[in-house]
Amino acid sequence: MRMSEPLFSKKQIYDLMIPLIMEQVFMAAIGMFDVIMVSGLGEHSISAVSLVDFINQLINSVLTALSTGGAIVCSQYLGRKDLRDAGEAVEHLILLVTFAGTAMMMAALAGNPWILKRLYGSIEPQVLEAGSVYFCLSGISYPFIALFCCSAAVMRVLGYARVSFYTSLVMNLLNISMNAVFIFGFHWGVFGAGMASLLSRAAVSLVLFYLVVNRQNMVPVRPLVWWRLRRKRASAILGLAIPTSLESSLFYIGRLLVQRVVTGFGTSAIAANAVSLTVTEFLHMPGAGIGIAMITIVGRCVGADEKKQARGYARYLIGLTYVFQGVCCAASMVFASRITGLYNLTDVTKETAVWMLMTHGVICALFWPMGFTTANALKSAGDVRFTMAMSFACMWVFRVGGSYLFVRLFPQLGVMNVWFAMYCDWVARAGICFVRFRGNRWLDKGVGG
């Protein structure tokens, strides 16, 4: 029996994967630089920016998940060499995600600051005031985040990963430059940080959208005036996008509820938690970038009915994630004290943050890749309902439920209870994904399957 030709060479895999990892690093850098650059204004400013960034992460995760659903459809059509349907899927993806971002903007502006009060409960007045300013500017940026997410997803699936990478690089350079001018030059404080993020996201998202419509030559995309939503095509995208976005939204809603536990320990705990989470986002970037590469690689294999190749590539990428994550986690543990020293924290806050990074380094290296990168392999094949159910159960049983339980059982551990509950969540996800990946059912969930 003649062996099938490999759909991807190792060079193609690395050419796709490395720009995606770097892109994820640059995207995470926006929030990190906002926190670093406002840290000189005091822990109230750090807390305000970090609390709103939790909401921004929720919005970004939902929009990214919607984009991922459409990207899976596009990828599988490309695997079947059905370019016309792939082009229509691109148009529908951009329309649907941009509409969602606009709706989120309207909700954020209408609900500010009520949303902050409801989410965070006993938030200090000074933190609430600064947070409301930052939340307003963040809300205005949501349509641009949506446009960036879907345009970047399209370019990655079509093989233009470097374009997505370079636009992320430009976005971060713009953000850092404007942060310096607005915060230190104009002395705008938290308002300056929010304005820098808004303007950088708006400029780059519009450029990336232009490239999708006018500069890529992989699939036919019609002029914008001809775009129309068609029920069948929209249903195919939403059938994958809705479970994926629900998974992400429930995940971050759970994190927001856990954040209520953190706020109960005071401003020092909020600041330590914010700094540690910001740093650990970088440690997850190799896995996040490789997980996005799964969409193109595994999705095309499933679309071409090359299931054996889909499993083989997924296994290889999961192994790479363990290597990259292990190196990053080891580095974070060695340099934990120096890293936290960048944030102008008090001695007590810094000590807590260092302890968070040390424990995180061990658990992340062992369990995060299997629990999260493997889940992306399942999604890429269309197994989105399973990953949604798993994420919902693990988040609400272990992370949310565990946080409240551990605080009651071990009050002396303070905010560390939240991190121990998160580790329980990761261990459970890793075990479930390992069992699912070893079976075959996840490979039978393709578009139209």
**Mean pLDDT level:** 88
Termini gap: 26 Å
**Sheet/helix structural class:** mainly alpha
Order of helices and strands: HHHHHHHHHHHHHHH
- How many β-strand stretches? 0
Q: C-alpha Rg, in Å?
A: 21 Å
> Could you tell me the strand content as a percent range?
under 5%
Q: Largest sheet, if any?
A: none
Count of helix runs = 15
Backbone shape: globular
Spans of at least 5 consecutive residues whose pLDDT stays below 50 are none
Helix content: over 70%
Give a brief outline of the structure:
The chain is mainly α. Helix content is 83%, strand content 0%.
Features:
449 residues; mainly alpha; 15 helices
Describe it for me?
With about 450 residues, the chain is an all-alpha fold. The chain is built from 15 helices and no strands. Helix 1 runs antiparallel to helix 7 and helix 11 (about 305-335) packs antiparallel against helix 13 (about 345-380). The model has no long low-confidence stretch (mean pLDDT about 90).
Compile the SSE list and pairings.
Elements: H1 10-38, H2 43-79, H3 83-111, H4 114-120, H5 125-157, H6 161-185, H7 189-214, H8 231-263, H9 267-283, H10 285-303, H11 307-334, H12 336-340, H13 347-380, H14 384-409, H15 416-438
Helix pairs in contact: 1-2, 1-6, 1-7, 1-9, 1-10, 2-3, 2-5, 2-8, 2-9, 2-10, 3-5, 5-6, 5-7, 6-7, 8-14, 9-13, 10-11, 10-13, 11-13, 13-15, 14-15
